[in-house]
Amino acid sequence: MTCTSGSGCLTSNASDTRGFKVKTSVAEHVFYWPMCTRKHCSSTLLPYKIIYIVLQGTSIFTDENHPIHLHGYDFYILAEGFGNFNPKTDTSKFNLVDPPLRNTVSLPVKGWAVIRFVADNPGTWIMHCHLDVHIGWGLATVFVVEDGPVPGQKLEQPPLDLPVW
């Protein structure tokens, strides 16, 4: 999804007390989840940038909230709601002043949540529903976060004496 000026998607110029801004005319990295099907799940390559993920509850298999957990990061919960997420109207509900910082969000039944984080921890990280049976239903995915531009933002090479079987 590409967000452009006037599209209604992430177009606020507001910033929170931590200094993050939502840009008006620059394409942001926005992903919709679940990203898997019942029989296929692939990893998603994330750039070393600000990431927005729209979590959409479909209630196809069950009518219960999904506690969605992301390994390797804490994230801001910008908004939650019911029904299908609408980027033209629901972005006005974003809390850009003091959003809660968590590593798990409760995805409402037949609802949505939007999270935001800076993908600045290179490596492979899983995002999944904490109800284990739901992982088999496709409520899990893996993010592969790219290295950053400077040496301190890159994964280190494994040690030469690392045992390999």
UniProtKB/TrEMBL annotation:
Residues 49-147 form the Plastocyanin-like domain. It holds the Pfam family Cu-oxidase_2. One of its GO terms (cellular component) is extracellular region. One of its GO terms (molecular function) is copper ion binding. It is found in: Secreted. The keyword Transmembrane does not apply. PANTHER family: LACCASE-5 (PTHR11709:SF431), MULTI-COPPER OXIDASE (PTHR11709). Keywords: Copper, Metal-binding, Oxidoreductase, Repeat, Secreted. InterPro entries: Cu-oxidase_C (IPR011706), Cu-oxidase_fam (IPR045087), Cu_oxidase_CS (IPR033138), Cu_oxidase_Cu_BS (IPR002355), Cupredoxin (IPR008972). This is Laccase. It comes from the Eukaryota. Belongs to the multicopper oxidase family. PROSITE patterns: MULTICOPPER_OXIDASE1 (PS00079), MULTICOPPER_OXIDASE2 (PS00080).
